[in-house]
TrEMBL record:
Disordered: annotated span: 450-489
Membership in a protein family: Belongs to the peptidase A1 family.
Designated name of the protein: Peptidase A1 domain-containing protein
GO BP annotations, alphabetical order: proteolysis
Keyword annotations of the record: Disulfide bond
Superkingdom in the source lineage: Eukaryota
Native organism: Cerrena zonata
UniProt keyword Zinc, yes or no: no
Active site residues per record: D112, D319
Biased composition (Low complexity): 450-488
Annotated PANTHER family: BETA-SITE APP-CLEAVING ENZYME, ISOFORM A-RELATED, ENDOPEPTIDASE (CTSD), PUTATIVE (AFU_ORTHOLOGUE AFUA_4G07040)-RELATED
GO MF terms, alphabetically ordered: aspartic-type endopeptidase activity
Domain Peptidase A1 positions: 90-430
SS bond partners: C125-C130
């Protein structure tokens, strides 16, 4: 197994479809014979990390840009996507307003293309996950329910009531984009995997056209002209200038994670989001779960010495709720072995590390006869420190047993501008994103039914505070708010000479089992 890594600040399952769980600190794993010829294996015990050497995204901000750099103006249809300190989760700050009482609550909801349904914690939720975040107080007025729901996350079940906002005189909004007819769940339960994420629920944006899908309801309510949305996640190679509504330079929000664009503007703005006005579209494969599932005809690895075919005709799930990439274990073994050869270290449980100074390895995905490339920097995690693994970095690509899909998460999506088209059941990828641009605020225009800003938003303990979601106080692991927690799956100090390869903590938000009554 691996030596010590300081990676995995980025991946921690929230909606975990996996059959096994990410290892906890001090967990002992028996040594196994290597299943990969010539690959190093290690076993031992590990402790929580003491330093933060995460591979978080570093954005360059500037006061001057080239005259050719585009300016993207925020509007009701163009919104900032927020992220946490380690870029493990991407969420939207949404507001639920009770129009009868003028009570409103701003809730950070995880943007999840792997979920068909949206839900949020209510005030009765008393779990650790709920106590740390904002909740909607449904006790302030009588709430009519239309049905109940259940969700199962890797064995943890949550249940609650489904409500329709129009039946309860509620308003659901993201800045000025207000939706009055939307079905979402309210629950007083949370799965244990949500304990370490400072989000109040999920906003589902799957390929479904049901009343529970946020995008389809924006379209049905005539708030957007087409059931389409585009996503541009931030990456380290970007330089951004941020302007306020008076066209004066301002500070880029510290939780800036990218932009989401609703409606036909997602395709019309392609020239602003890409250096080449080229979007390659591919059809969504039919599936019962409304996943954004596509066919990848070929996956090829490249390094200094050779190129090698890894797999062909694989189905890949495009998922904003997964931080890295997750592959069937046999494919992940093959990919890492051919990329890194004898320099690869693995624990034979789907976790890998490679030399940090490797710069020439990359992966090519062939989608609809077009090649999309991931460079090594796109899937390189944190560097380990400690006995035996100095100079090794974690891989953001994990191997999963009993999994048939390739899951392409934020590490993949941050490389491209992606357009999700519900009506045509297609996804479009633009493989040359802009690296320099300006963002300009515009005065927010709220619908007449949206409560005025004088309505206070209260924190989880009743005090008036900022509604911005707070990430874990420890930037080293998204599975923990304190470095001493037994759930901290980030880089560990070495307690003994050898230790486990700790999985890159992956927020994997796909394949929850849902039951609606």
């Amino acid at each position: 197994m691996l030596k010590n890594l300081e990676f995995w600040k980025a991946l921690n399952p929230v909606k975990d479809f996996r059959s096994h769980k990410i290892g906890n600190s001090k967990k002992k794993v028996p040594s196994k014979a290597s299943k990969l010829s010539g690959i190093k294996n290690y076993a031992g015990s590990v402790q929580s990390p003491k330093d933060d050497t995460s591979s978080t995204i570093a954005i360059t901000t500037t006061s001057s840009l080239s005259s050719l750099a585009p300016t993207i103006e925020l509007s009701e249809n163009i919104h900032i996507v927020s992220t946490d300190e380690s870029n493990a989760i991407y969420y939207l700050n949404t507001t639920i307003t009770d129009l009868k009482t003028n009570y409103n609550e701003t809730l950070p909801l995880l943007l999840d293309t792997g979920s068909a349904n949206s839900w949020a914690y209510n005030e009765s939720c008393s779990s650790d996950a709920c106590k740390a975040v904002y909740r909607f107080d449904d006790s302030k007025s009588s709430i009519k329910t239309e049905s109940t729901f259940e969700l199962v996350y890797s064995g943890d079940k949550i249940s609650g009531d489904l409500i329709n906002t129009s039946d309860n005189n509620l308003n659901f909004s993201i800045d000025g984009l207000s939706l009055n007819n939307f079905t979402l769940g309210l629950t007083d339960e949370s799965p244990s995997m949500f304990d370490d994420y400072k989000v109040s629920g999920i906003i589902g944006v799957s390929s479904s056209s049901s009343s529970k899908n946020y995008i389809s309801q924006l379209y049905e309510s005539n708030l957007i002209d087409q059931p389409i949305f585009g996503l541009s996640l931030v990456s380290s190679d970007q330089t951004i200038k941020y302007l306020n509504s008076n066209n004066k330079q301002s500070n880029l929000p510290s939780d800036y994670g990218g932009l989401v664009i609703f409606g036909s503007q997602a395709s019309k703005l392609t020239k602003k989001f890409t250096e080449k006005d080229l979007v390659v579209y591919t059809d969504i494969s039919d599936n019962d779960n409304s996943y954004w599932l596509i066919n990848v005809t070929e996956i090829t690895s490249h390094n200094d010495s050779a190129s090698a075919d890894i797999a062909s005709d694989r189905q890949a799930l495009i998922d904003t709720g997964t931080t890295g990439l997750a592959l069937p274990k046999s494919d992940a073994d093959s990919l890492h072995s051919k990329l890194f050869g004898s320099n690869l270290v693995t624990d034979n449980s789907g976790n890998y590390a490679f030399l940090c100074n490797d710069t020439n390895s990359n992966i090519t995905f062939t989608i609809n006869d077009h090649d999309f490339n991931l460079s090594l920097s796109d899937f390189k995690g944190n560097e380990y420190s400690g006995s035996g693994l100095d100079g090794y970095c974690a891989s953001k690509i994990q191997g999963l047993d009993d999994n048939d899909y390739w899951i392409l998460g934020a590490a993949f999506l941050s490389k491209f501008y992606t357009i999700f088209d519900l009506s045509k059941k297609k996804i479009g990828f633009a493989d040359s994103r802009i690296t320099t641009y300006a963002i300009k605020e515009t005065p927010k225009v709220f619908s007449s039914e949206t409560v005025s800003s004088s309505s206070s938003t209260r924190s989880k303990n009743g005090s008036h505070t900022s509604t911005q979601a707070k990430s874990s106080s420890s930037a080293t692991s998204k599975s923990n708010s304190t470095s001493s927690s037994s759930k901290d799956s980030g880089a560990r100090d070495i307690q003994a000479g050898l230790h486990n390869l700790i999985p890159f903590q992956c927020l994997i938000m796909v394949l929850a089992i849902s039951i609606f009554n």
